[in-house]
Automatic annotation (TrEMBL):
Active site, renumbered: D41
UniProt-listed Enzyme Commission number(s): 5.4.99.25
SUPFAM superfamilies: Pseudouridine synthase (SSF55120)
Superkingdom of the organism of origin: Bacteria
Protein name as annotated: tRNA pseudouridine synthase B
Gene Ontology terms, MF aspect: RNA binding; tRNA pseudouridine(55) synthase activity
Name of the coding gene: truB
Role of this protein: Responsible for synthesis of pseudouridine from uracil-55 in the psi GC loop of transfer RNAs.
Family: Belongs to the pseudouridine synthase TruB family. Type 1 subfamily.
Lineage of origin: Bacteria, Pseudomonadati, Spirochaetota, Spirochaetia, Spirochaetales
Length: 295
């Protein structure tokens, strides 16, 4: 496969969709294709984990990671989309700091959350936002999420600055809405920035305009282990060709003594990423193979 194959950490700009950002990055990298591991709203900025070339097949393994955000909630106003792009649809009072501090206690740990009406969640086979654009108000299902930490970093009424560490599937827009509702008022997310995805940090990201075909990507053992948070294994040299061709693993003796959580991140003796293995019904199967190395 021609072009770059690997992972690149991008600092997404406000006003651009995640899809537009990775397409632009893919063209700059001259990658055959590009994707990402989790959508960041158009109005938001921050860390977007971009997968280039054959690494797009890693997407399903990286979307499960926790996230860290910093956000500003504006109290006293709610918009239809719960972000700055929507029209104001409700107004309310401005809470005092002491009440906000008390309210946040109830939003730490495991909670149930309804996604925003304007979201990509499927309702009866149709994206919720598409139904909302038609004037429909579908019943959004509750989701179980986990808020690891929720801390106030500043408050100049009506603007509350927070830092949130949360599980996959958490909507910061819903969090702002629900905190406000618990205080008998309304709010929306005025600004949002993603700081971390799993172990990947915004400090290690680059602007999309800085990307070109010479931009290095993360594709070696040390980088992959650090990013995935999983210890890798080295595939014996004699087994590498069979691995890359996806041949049966039933006689792969090097796997016999391994008792590890899956997926296993696999490398060759030079530290090149070969693919992933996972357990299925008690046996090892391929999660993905880095097809770029077959070329």
């Amino acid at each position: 496969m021609s072009g770059k194959n690997g992972i690149i950490l991008i600092d997404k700009n406000e006003g651009f969709t995640s899809s537009d950002t990775v397409r632009f990055a893919g063209r700059r990298l001259k990658a055959g294709k590009a994707g990402h591991t989790g959508t960041l709203d158009k109005f938001a900025s921050g860390l977007l984990v971009c997968l280039a070339g054959s690494f797009t097949r890693l997407s399903s393994y990286l979307t499960e990671q926790d996230k860290v955000y910093e956000a500003v909630f504006e109290f006293g106003r709610e918009t239809e989309t719960l972000d700055p792009e929507g029209a104001v649809c409700a107004e309310g009072g401005i809470p005092v700091l002491e009440d906000l501090e008390s309210a946040l206690v109830g939003f730490r740990g495991e909670i149930l959350q309804k996604p925003p009406l304007y979201s990509a969640v499927h309702i009866d086979g149709t994206r919720a936002y598409k139904r909302a654009l038609k004037g429909e108000v579908p019943d959004m299902p509750f989701r179980r999420i986990f808020i690891d930490s929720l801390e106030i970093t500043g408050y100049t009424a009506p603007f509350l600055s927070v830092r949130v560490a949360c599980s996959k599937g958490t909507y910061i827009r819903s969090l702002a809405r629900d905190i406000a509702y618990s205080l008998g008022t309304v709010a929306y997310v005025k600004s949002l920035r993603r700081l971390q995805v799993g172990r990947a940090r915004i400090e290690d990201a680059i602007g999309v305009d800085e990307i070109d075909e010479d931009t290095p990507v993360l594709d070696d053992r040390n980088s992959m282990e650090a990013l995935l948070g999983i210890t890798g294994i080295r595939i014996p040299d004699a087994e590498v060709e069979s691995f890359l061709l996806g041949r049966s693993l039933k006689d792969a003796g090097f796997l016999a003594e391994i008792e590890a959580a899956t997926p296993l991140v696999c490398f060759d003796s030079d530290g090149r990423f070969l693919g992933l293995l996972k357990k299925k019904e008690g046996r090892w199967v391929y999660g993905m193979v880095n097809g770029a190395l077959r070329d």
